[in-house]
Amino acid sequence: xEGKPRPAATAAxxxxxxxxxxxxxxxxxxxxxQKLGVSVTDLTCLGFILxxxxxxxxxxxxxxxxxxxxxxxxxxxxxLERAGYARRAPDPSDRRRVRVVADADAxxxxxxxxxxxxxxxxxxxxxxxxxxxxxxxxxFTRAAGEARAHLAQxxxxxxx
Length: 160
Prior knowledge:
This protein is mainly alpha-helical. Helix content is 68%, strand content 11%. The protein has six helices and three strands; from the N terminus they run ααβααββαα. A three-stranded antiparallel β-sheet has the order 1-3-2. The chain is globular. The model has no long low-confidence stretch (mean pLDDT 92).
């Protein structure tokens, strides 16, 4: 597959477009969370729970992925359980630990809200070569690392 011609862009233009995309994402997450009756943090964690699939996360794993404290995760899990989206299940290899499992029956509304967007993104990715998708994946992975580092720095400087 040969890539399509792309217009030239500077790093500043790319950052501007990223800011627009992130802003839309934040607004969208608020609307979806509201429709599902959860907070944006709860919705973010539910996304990580769903992503884990057949390898359920521990509460600590979930806290790390969501970049929140384990204390905050307790509240998130309580709310997701009350809403029926997830539940705690004993870890089969260590009964002292729990794993977080999505409730498959309650996920229909989540899938209904997200599926059309993911179909649009799949169609968009079809316009890119595997090499271009590799670059995008690398950039998002590295940018997420930079975002985590910046968030840690902001938290550290505002904790005083």
